[in-house]
Amino acid sequence: MFQVKTYSQEEFKKMKALKREFVETGEGELFTKNTVKRRLRIGEEKATQLFNDLTKQEDGE
Fold it and tell me: HEC profile for the chain?
């Protein structure tokens, strides 16, 4: 099922860069949905969708 993205491309790019920083410093496991939520000051649903899309992209889907 196709789901409309609730976040902007700019937000995605910011969180992709942040996730990369976490991984490079060996703290990749600390990058969570709540990290996205706090950094962008967004709601639960939007943070979940953004985090899931970042995770899918990293998994090569």
Answer: CCCCCCCCHHHHHHHHHHHHHHHHCCCHHHCCHHHHHHHHCCCHHHHHHHHHHHHHHHCCC
**Alpha carbon 61 to chain centroid, angstroms:** 15
Burial of 35 (0-12, 13-18, 19+ CB in 10 A): middle
Is the alpha carbon torsion for 13, 15, 60, 3 positive or negative? negative
pLDDT digits (tens, 9 = 90+) for 1-36: 567 788 999 999 999 999 999 999 999 999 999 999
How far is 19 from 22, CA to CA, in rounded Å?
Answer: 5
Q: Which residue has the tokens 């962008």?
A: 40
d(CA 29, CA 43) in angstroms, rounded, equals 21
